[in-house]
TrEMBL record:
Protein name: 7, 8-dihydropterin-6-yl-methyl-4-(Beta-D-ribofuranosyl)aminobenzene 5'-phosphate synthase
Source organism of this protein record: Methylobacterium brachythecii
PANTHER family, alphabetized: METALLO-BETA-LACTAMASE SUPERFAMILY PROTEIN, METALLO-BETA-LACTAMASE SUPERFAMILY PROTEIN (AFU_ORTHOLOGUE AFUA_3G07630)
PROSITE patterns: PROKAR_LIPOPROTEIN, TAT
Gene Ontology molecular function: any one: 7,8-dihydropterin-6-yl-methyl-4-(beta-D-ribofuranosyl)aminobenzene 5'-phosphate synthase
Protein EC: 2.5.1.105
Keyword Cytoplasm appears in the UniProt entry: no
Length: 371
């Protein structure tokens, strides 16, 4: 099995973390070692938060993937309805023989939406074995602390949050459209996690999560894909808030606000028995093709059953979008399931190039892979 970070790079990062994150007993670093890729019999994704809800969607099956939409999105109280917002959260359940695992992947933009939808969809947070955050954008971690305030005492005492790396804690800002002016886009606060008794595991190398999932670790950038304009980042720690900057560039060390390269965005993956890989790219800033290739390299599994999640192609110009979808098609996935920041333009282009392989879900949908 191939595909871990080179040991020199990992040790350099680890040394920096040991210095910059000193005093944060809530942080662990995943070891630089090859991992045994787990296989599961069945995977179920419940879409807790996405940007839209369509009550008229009908149940469907695409290339063996079963899609059950949520209907009208109301719970037992007609005055409550599913909340949609810019962001993503997935309630992930897996089965291997008689062994079940549950992971909460990303947490949406706000706790209000997350908690509302958990109640309406009647998922059971007490079953959660692990938490994963895909990257350091507020629309993916914004609901986390509110979720923990409601459910921490009902979760296992040793439950952990798996993050792609130190970069998740950096301060991010968004351009206003005026040269040199930005608006605050927040930062994930490890002090709040420590106060809620959550240990964060920094997965700069591939990491097995809850014995059923694995993360890609750092994603190599080898495809034609490029990072489309989004946030800017400012690195450094002040009063315990922020990210360690000692293993970054000279400009970053000077505290400059620079374009965000999403160096620690990672994908969450599953190997489905007799089906192949399911690769979940919550936002895909570093490229969805890059993410899938990394999952293939890490796992040694070439067959791609499904590519799922946000692909950040909503802002893509037409010629670039067409080219990326063509590259996705070359991966020969059984099904492509766009969510969140993928964009209507992506869904339409994918349906044009891969008409038998696209499934578009909605907030509240349940997707089932495998037996």
């Amino acid at each position: 099995m191939a595909g871990v970070l080179d040991r020199r790079g990992f040790l350099k990062a680890s040394a920096a973390l040991a210095t910059g994150a000193a005093g944060f007993s809530c942080v662990e670093v995943a070891r630089a070692a090859q991992i045994e890729i787990p296989t599961v019999d069945k995977l179920s994704l419940r879409v807790l938060i996405d940007s839209a809800h369509d009550q008229f969607l009908k149940p469907s099956t695409v290339q063996g993937v079963v899609h059950q939409p949520p209907g009208n999105g109301r719970g037992s109280d007609y005055r409550k309805v599913l909340h949609n917002q810019w962001g993503l959260s997935l309630f992930v359940e897996t089965q291997r023989a008689d062994e079940a695992r549950t992971i909460l992947l990303d947490f949406g933009y706000s706790p209000d939406a997350l908690l509302n939808n958990i109640e309406i969809l009647k998922v059971d947070p007490t079953k959660i074995d692990a938490l994963i955050v895909s990257h350091g954008h507020h629309d993916h971690y914004g609901g986390l602390t509110g979720f923990l305030d409601s459910f921490r005492d009902k979760l296992a005492p040793g439950v952990k949050l798996y993050a792609g790396g130190e970069d998740n804690f950096c301060h991010r800002v968004s351009p206003t459209g005026v040269q040199g002016q930005f608006t605050d886009f927040g930062q994930l606060d490890r002090r709040e996690l420590a106060a809620r008794r959550i240990t964060t595991v920094l997965c700069e190398t591939p990491t097995v999560v809850a014995g059923h999932a694995f993360t890609t670790g750092h994603i190599k950038r080898s495809s034609i894909e490029r990072i489309l304009p989004n946030t800017f980042v400012q690195r450094g720690i002040k009063d315990g808030l922020g990210c360690d900057a000692t293993h970054y560039s000279a400009a970053e060390l000077e505290g400059k606000i620079i374009p965000d390269e999403h160096v620690h965005e990672h994908a969450t993956c599953f190997n489905i028995k007799n089906k192949g890989l399911v690769v979940i790219s919550s936002c895909g800033h570093v490229g969805i093709v890059n993410s899938v290739r990394q999952a293939q390299e890490v796992s040694g599994v070439q067959k791609v059953h499904a590519i799922v999640g946000g692909f950040h192609l909503g802002p893509a110009p037409k010629d670039y979008l067409t080219e990326v979808v063509a590259e996705i098609r070359k991966l020969e996935p059984d099904v492509v399931i766009p969510m969140h920041c993928s964009g209507l333009n992506f869904a339409l282009e994918a349906q044009a190039q891969m008409p038998a392989n696209v499934l578009v879900p909605t907030t509240g949908s349940r997707l089932t892979f495998g037996a």
